[in-house]
Amino acid sequence: MADLSAFLDKAFENSSFEELADAPVDALAGISKSDAEALKQALGIKTIRQLAEHKVILIAQAIAGLATAKK
């Protein structure tokens, strides 16, 4: 597996991709428990998979990609 340790909380460094997808968003480095709670309250996001697949995130990525492509 690729070394993702710089992007993960230490407790999740040895997790498989399948486990990571269903891990809480605070398994990602830089997202605190309070950040995770805010995402849950605002958007209903609890897992990394839900974050990655959320329509607002996908729309933001599409807009940013189109803006970059237009340059």
Automatic annotation (TrEMBL):
Protein name per UniProt: Uncharacterized protein
Source domain of life: Bacteria
Organism name: Herpetosiphon aurantiacus (strain ATCC 23779 / DSM 785 / 114-95)
